[in-house]
Automatic annotation (TrEMBL):
Taxonomic classification: Bacteria, Pseudomonadati, Pseudomonadota, Alphaproteobacteria, Hyphomicrobiales
InterPro entries xrefs: IalB_sf, Invasion_prot_B
Official protein name in the record: Mlr4354 like protein
Length: 169
């Protein structure tokens, strides 16, 4: 319930940051799948579908993390089937790397402002598969002030959420 409320509050914020369009329709909530909510909105480029979750754990507790979330978007008509990204509630350290770990699998993301994306886009399917088969996703990042931050995301419900947006058109 808490994650559902947070996800809805963050939905509009997600759209503004994760797209490069001047105008976007307000997002429409589709369904909640445990820790992951599914949404869509219409843009000038077409319908955009995505799933989003918020961290269940944050460290260090002594800092203001802002609003952080992990999003996986799908843009029908584009060659990218799923695009995973981290959206931080603060500016990330310039040219730093974000580490995503699920079980023994590690993925490296590059940063820009408050966002992080996989360095190697060819690894997107592997990250999505690891998310589907894992239970928890741990993320380590460095803030613009140099503070190392960590986040844990539950992966419960992600397979159902991805299936929900699979045929987004």
């Amino acid at each position: 319930m808490f994650i559902n409320i947070i996800a809805r509050i963050l939905a509009f914020f997600i759209i503004i940051i994760s797209t490069k369009i001047a105008y976007a329709e307000a997002p429409t909530f589709i369904q909640q799948f445990q820790a992951w909510g599914s949404y869509y909105y219409n843009s000038k480029q077409g319908k955009i579908c995505y799933i989003v979750s918020v961290p269940v754990e944050k460290a260090p507790a002594s800092v203001d993390h802002g609003k952080n979330f992990f999003i996986v978007s799908q843009k029908p008509g584009n060659k990218v089937s799923y695009e995973p990204q981290l959206m931080a509630g603060y500016n990330l350290y310039s040219k730093s790397k974000v580490t995503v770990q699920i079980d023994s699998k590690k993925f490296i993301m590059f940063t820009r402002d408050k966002g992080a994306w996989l360095e190697n886009a060819a690894e997107e399917p592997q990250l999505i598969n690891a998310m589907k088969t894992g239970k928890k996703m741990n993320i380590s990042a460095k803030s613009g002030r140099g503070t190392t931050t960590t986040y844990s995301y539950s992966l419960e419900g992600i397979s159902a959420a991805l299936k929900n947006i699979k045929n987004c058109k």
